[in-house]
Each structure stands twice: as structure tokens, then as C-alpha cells.
TrEMBL record:
Pfam families listed in its UniProt record: CofD
UniProt name for this protein: LPPG:FO 2-phospho-L-lactate transferase
PANTHER family: 2-PHOSPHO-L-LACTATE TRANSFERASE (PTHR43007)
UniProt keyword list: Magnesium, Transferase
Listed transmembrane segments: none
InterPro entries, A to Z: CofD (IPR002882), CofD-like_dom_sf (IPR038136), FbiA/CofD (IPR010115)
GO molecular function: LPPG:FO 2-phospho-L-lactate transferase activity; magnesium ion binding
Presence of keyword Amino-acid biosynthesis: no
Organism: Actinacidiphila glaucinigra
């Protein structure tokens, strides 16, 4: 079975571990979000691609869900000693090697998709990881400008500054995938979607992760026209995000932080099935009324067994909507 998964960061990566366990024979292609990418110290950092690569490759810092295990921060300390910022983004020494190799290969003319393939040759994640595009897209978030004085204006900050430095503690008025309009799907993305038997939207952030992937011209259309089951898992449980601060960016795009609202946001033109957590069983009827098959199952990714069960439920629902 050929499965395509649109994955963002931590939630997507953890779900993929369960999917691999639930469907060990499947051929899994992951279309990775690159809107979180940031250029720091002259290096290109791809947080969501690295989270998938490290998580499935066995190098992830398990509690954080990002960065490497057994990390040290000597280079970061030395950069700070030179007064070279930013200090709010925690790049570790082992992680720096990934960004140096990536930046060196891009400088030599390799597209991000080829670079990602090369990095995965070391990590062997057991899935094919393709960036959503080889073109540069960076998600920016519009917030109040603290320097603009009373009733002042707003400014756009890089997603990572909003997410990590500001801890999403201020209102987000808009989320902008800068560069999306001119971007093309990376080589292999549309082919993987066209050849898929099932397409899954994991419990990643529906705005800045899955939403950004869908903003690459051609990807949303290819999924809608693929003619195969598209099944998603709600990242919102009990009207709150399981992890991260998805509710902040959902508000920015006018979507209520509920499992049913996120399903409606993706729409029945895209989604055939939607899994909500058992605490949201009351919303199953509402989602089904929107033309999307819905089932309430445990969605807390507490351990591999739980995530494997979720993945199995998603594949079962896919089998039912296909019929
Ligand atoms: N997330 C944080 O909350 N704090 C950090 O200092 C941080 C550093 C970091 C370094 C490399 C990397 O690949 C990811 C990193 N993240 C950090 C996670 C990053 O913000 C992700 O983009 C989000 O978690 C959303 O996926």
C-alpha cells in the first residue's frame, strides 16, 4: 500500500512512528513542511524536515520533539560570546552539522529535495521524505508592533520568532506563507500524490504545517483530484491543541479551536474522513453533516502503542470511505 502523509513537526513525526508500526509493509512518502525554515548564522535550518528525519531515524531529543538527543551547545555559547544572535533559538552542536551539510549542498547547487535525500541516507527514516517545494517559502506571522506606540501598527515576524521567542503569547492577526504563490511542488510530490492509495493528514498544525503544504500551488488540487481516501486526525482535543499553540494560529485564520472546525476548515472537498478524540465524540454528527465521515477514537499520542492504534484507525476509516 502506498501512503502519502503531509507532515509538519512534532505531532506529524510522532504519528509517523505509529504509522510505520501499523503498516510495516507500506511504502510511505512524507511531504514535509518547509514554511518553518529559518536562515541563522548563514545556515539554512529546516525544523520540520529535521524533526521527521531525527524522529524516524532515532536521533531525536524525545521530550522536546525537536533537535538531537545528547546535545551540547558549545557553538551556541561561543556565538553568544561574540554577541552574535539570536540566542532564543536553541541550535545544538550536533544539529549544526546537519545545517552545515545542508547549506553546503545548497550552495553547490543541489535542490532542497536532493539535500534531504542525502541527509536521509544517513538517518534511514524508513520513509521517503520530500520537502513540499524546493523553492523558498517562509511563514510569517502578523502581530502588534510593540514599538508602534498606542493604537500603533502591526508587523510581520518570522514564524520561529513568533513560536519560540514570543512563545505565541501575543495575538496573531495573519499567517503568511511568504513566497508560496511562486513556488512549485518539489520533484516527486505530485507523482507521490497521484500514485497514493491513501493520503493522511496527521495531527500536525492545520495552519502553519498542513496548511502551508496545501498553500503550494498544485498540491491541494492534486489531493482533491487524487480519487483516493483522504483521512485526517484532529490536532485539537477537547477544544484545545494537544501540543504546541495551534489555537493561536487558528484564530488568525478565523477557525475555532475545535476538532469539528478544523475538519470544516480542510473541507469535504479535501477530506473524506476525520478522526476526533473520544472526548469530542459529541462532534461526530457535526462533522458527518459536513460530508466528512467521522469517528471518535483515542487520539493522545502517549506512547507508540497509542500512536499505532491511531494510525490503524485512520487506515480502517480510509478503507471504509473508499467503499
Ligand atoms: N522550539 C522551541 O520551542 N525552542 C527552541 O529553542 C527550538 C530550537 C530548534 C532548533 C532546531 C529545530 O529544528 C527546531 C527547533 N525548535 C525549537 C522547534 C521549532 O520551533 C519547530 O519549528 C516548532 O516546534 C514547530 O514545528
Amino acid at each position: 500500500m502506498r501512503i502519502v502523509v503531509l507532515a509538519g513537526g512534532i505531532g506529524g513525526a510522532r504519528f509517523l512512528r505509529g504509522l510505520q508500526a501499523a503498516a510495516p509493509e507500506a511504502d510511505i512518502t512524507v511531504i514535509g513542511n518547509t514554511g518553518d525554515d529559518i536562515h541563522l548564522f548563514g545556515l539554512k535550518v529546516c525544523p520540520d524536515l529535521d524533526t521527521v528525519m531525527y524522529t524516524l531515524g532515532g536521533g531525536i531529543h524525545e521530550e522536546q520533539g525537536w533537535g538531537r538527543a545528547d546535545e551540547t551547545f558549545t557553538v551556541k555559547e561561543e556565538l553568544a560570546a561574540y554577541g552574535v544572535g539570536p540566542e532564543w533559538f536553541g541550535l545544538g552542536d550536533r544539529d549544526f552539522a546537519t545545517h552545515i551539510v545542508r547549506t553546503q549542498m545548497i550552495g553547490a547547487g543541489y535542490p532542497l529535495s536532493a539535500v534531504t535525500e542525502a541527509l536521509c541516507a544517513r538517518w534511514k527514516p524508513g520513509v521517503r521524505l520530500i520537502p513540499m517545494t524546493d523553492d523558498r517559502i517562509e511563514t510569517h506571522v502578523v502581530v502588534d508592533d510593540p514599538d508602534a506606540g498606542p493604537g500603533g501598527g502591526r508587523k510581520a515576524v518570522h514564524f520561529q520568532e513568533y513560536w519560540v521567542r514570543l512563545r505565541a503569547s501575543v495575538p496573531a492577526y495573519a499567517v503568511l506563507p511568504v513566497g508560496a504563490e511562486g513556488a512549485k511542488p518539489a520533484p516527486g510530490v505530485l507523482e507521490a500524490i497521484g500514485e497514493a492509495d491513501v493520503i493522511l493528514f496527521p495531527p500536525s498544525n492545520p495552519v502553519v504545517s498542513v496548511g502551508t503544504i496545501l498553500a503550494v500551488p498544485g498540491i491541494r488540487e492534486a489531493i482533491a483530484e487524487a480519487g483516493v481516501p483522504v483521512v485526517g486526525l484532529s490536532p485539537i482535543v477537547g477544544d484545545a491543541p494537544v501540543r504546541g499553540m495551534a489555537d493561536k494560529v487558528l484564530a488568525a485564520v478565523g477557525v475555532e479551536a475545535t476538532a469539528a472546525a478544523v475538519a470544516a476548515h480542510y473541507g469535504s472537498g479535501l477530506l473524506d474522513g476525520w478522526l476526533v478524540d473520544t472526548v469530542d465524540a459529541g462532534s461526530v454528527a457535526e462533522v458527518e453533516a459536513a460530508g466528512i465521515r467521522c469517528r471518535a477514537v483515542p487520539l493522545m499520542m502517549t506512547d507508540l502503542a497509542a500512536t499505532t492504534a491511531m494510525a490503524r484507525e485512520a487506515l480502517t476509516l480510509a478503507g471504509e470511505v473508499r467503499a
